[in-house]
Automatic annotation (TrEMBL):
<keyword id="KW-0274">FAD</keyword>
<dbReference type="InterPro" id="IPR033947">
    <property type="entry name" value="ETF_alpha_N"/>
</dbReference>
<keyword id="KW-0285">Flavoprotein</keyword>
<dbReference type="GO" id="GO:0009055">
    <property type="term" value="F:electron transfer activity"/>
</dbReference>
<feature type="binding site">
    <location>
        <position position="289"/>
    </location>
    <ligand>
        <name>FAD</name>
    </ligand>
</feature>
<keyword id="KW-0249">Electron transport</keyword>
<dbReference type="InterPro" id="IPR014731">
    <property type="entry name" value="ETF_asu_C"/>
</dbReference>
<feature type="domain" description="Electron transfer flavoprotein alpha/beta-subunit N-terminal">
    <location>
        <begin position="5"/>
        <end position="191"/>
    </location>
</feature>
<dbReference type="GO" id="GO:0033539">
    <property type="term" value="P:fatty acid beta-oxidation using acyl-CoA dehydrogenase"/>
</dbReference>
<dbReference type="InterPro" id="IPR001308">
    <property type="entry name" value="ETF_a/FixB"/>
</dbReference>
<dbReference type="InterPro" id="IPR014729">
    <property type="entry name" value="Rossmann-like_a/b/a_fold"/>
</dbReference>
<feature type="binding site">
    <location>
        <begin position="251"/>
        <end position="255"/>
    </location>
    <ligand>
        <name>FAD</name>
    </ligand>
</feature>
<feature type="binding site">
    <location>
        <position position="212"/>
    </location>
    <ligand>
        <name>FAD</name>
    </ligand>
</feature>
<keyword id="KW-0813">Transport</keyword>
<dbReference type="InterPro" id="IPR018206">
    <property type="entry name" value="ETF_asu_C_CS"/>
</dbReference>
<dbReference type="Pfam" id="PF00766">
    <property type="entry name" value="ETF_alpha"/>
</dbReference>
<dbReference type="Pfam" id="PF01012">
    <property type="entry name" value="ETF"/>
</dbReference>
């Protein structure tokens, strides 16, 4: 018999994040033909976003709208989601392993007195058990976990579990639930976003990253041009951030963001172990470095020994030819 699964959706500036659709795909795999119910929190009419979740595989969606949910807080969203969980009594919950997911899900797990498997990169089944695979030791190894009893609760790493095809012919009910959100202790007055206004780094399929080898903030310009051509995002090593070449919001690595794009281009990055911890699981890695002994070549699928200021513009030219 199928399991009833709940998927906690996440949006940014009114647009659902891709990891929400990936979470739906994971939930459907876990449910074994059971019902998949989406949850959306926010302000105003969330019907359009709810329909998007249905198009990507949710059977129905419950929205909770309140002015106190306009901006994410763990307290506000926690109250809303917990109320839906208590009403629906699901057998499992899935959410993206994003900044919001990493903040909200442990709080919910504590309130529900259940366990949580975080940062899942693969969901499979064997012998009637659902197996969750997650990286450990900064990606040097992987562990497999099963839940023997109680609620299934997991967060999935973006860009690892493929979403289902969008199908507008799918239909499902989108309803609104009234939840009395108690006064919030933290009040967010304003959000000032730092860093690039380009593609979201954690969900980008293509990332062009620079290290100390870019030599200056201006040195990132050819990388940005290549990223624009590829429809990708810009990233950086800690060395480049520490040197003041770019904002820390672009940092990839053990103390930065962990990314798993389809294509990762590392330009002028030596390959310190802390950086590799944040990108070594990328599907294809291309390294560009003047030093043929650079550690980055040990994890790269393709390596180019050369000056990035000569190689990157040529790559951009060739990519433009292919796109035409």
């Amino acid at each position: 018999m199928g399991k009833k699964m709940l998927v906690i959706g996440e949006s940014r500036e009114g647009v659902l994040r891709n990891v929400t659709f990936e979470a739906i795909a994971a939930a459907k795999q876990i449910s074994s033909d059971g019902e998949v119910v989406g949850i959306l929190c926010g302000e105003g009419d969330l019907t359009e976003q709810g329909n998007e979740m249905v198009y990507y595989g949710a059977d129905r969606v419950i929205t909770v709208s309140d002015e106190k949910l306009k901006t994410y807080t763990s307290e506000g969203y926690g109250q809303a989601v917990k109320a839906v969980i208590e009403d629906e009594s699901p057998e499992g919950i899935v959410m993206g392993h994003t900044a919001v997911g990493k903040d909200l899900t442990p709080k919910l797990a504590s309130k529900l007195e259940t366990g949580l498997i975080s940062d899942v990169t693969e969901v499979s089944s064997e012998g009637g058990n659902i197996i969750f695979t997650r990286p450990i030791y900064s990606g040097k190894a992987f562990e497999k976990k099963i839940i023997t009893e109680g609620l299934i609760f997991a967060t999935i790493r973006p860009n690892n579990i493929a979403s289902l095809e969008r199908d507008e012919s799918r239909s499902g009910e989108v309803t609104t639930k009234d939840v009395d959100i108690a006064d919030l202790r933290p009040i967010i007055k304003d959000i000032i976003r730092k860093g690039s206004e380009c593609v979201d780094l954690s969900e980008s399929k293509v990332i062009v990253a620079g290290g100390r080898g870019v030599k200056s903030a201006e040195g990132f310009e050819p990388l940005e041009e290549l990223a624009d051509v590829l429809g990708g995002a810009i990233g950086a090593s800690r060395g480049a951030c520490d040197a003041g070449y770019c904002d820390y919001s672009l940092q990839i690595g053990q103390t930065g963001k962990v990314v798993t794009p389809d294509l990762y281009i590392a330009a002028g990055i030596s390959g310190a172990i802390q950086h590799l911890a944040g990108m070594s699981n990328s599907k294809v890695i291309v390294a560009i470095n003047k030093d043929p002994e650079a550690n980055i070549f040990n994890v790269a699928d393709y390596g180019i020994v050369g000056d990035l200021f000569e190689v990157v513009p040529k790559l951009k030219e060739e990519m433009l030819k292919v796109k035409v």
